Amino acid sequence: MLKPRYDPEEDKSRHLAARDSDCEEMAKRNGWDLVDIEPSGNRILPVDCVFDGKTEFPRPFHETDADWETDEDE
After folding, report:
1. 35 Ramachandran zone, left/alpha/beta (phi>0; psi -120 to 50)
2. Is the pTM of this model over 0.85?
3. Which of 12, 24, 25, 48 could crosslink 38 through cysteines, CB 3.0-4.6 Å?
């Protein structure tokens, strides 16, 4: 079972990747602090990159906040 993508109790974020080197590239590209690489249990993306704090990928420049809003009534 996958761990939560962000765990506020330990203040760590996880992002799936194909290889350990992808975790290192993700950290470098986004300026995140890579603290661990764990097996994910996912066959397609077998590693979980663990970063300090809450990390999120930047939104594409053409998207707005409205693109990310959800309708709770659906």
Report:
1. alpha
2. no
3. 48
